[in-house]
Amino acid sequence: MAERTLSGQLGGPVPAGIEALADHEKQDLSDALRDARHRQAKALAEAGEEGLKYVPALLRGTVRRVVGL
């Protein structure tokens, strides 16, 4: 199960070094990757909102829709 999850997160086959890990270690790695991606997505969303402060208020709604925020 962890290998399938890791493979999906990595976007390809799991490297040989990772295959050698125990199942619980693979699960820990998978959890760490998932958490890192969530933190990254949150940071990007916050940066996008912060950047909107430099856009005139009347255009912010339109800019949000265009950039997908």
UniProtKB/TrEMBL annotation:
Q: Which organism is it from?
A: Amycolatopsis regifaucium
Task: Report the protein name in the record.
Answer: Uncharacterized protein
Highest taxon, organism lineage: Bacteria
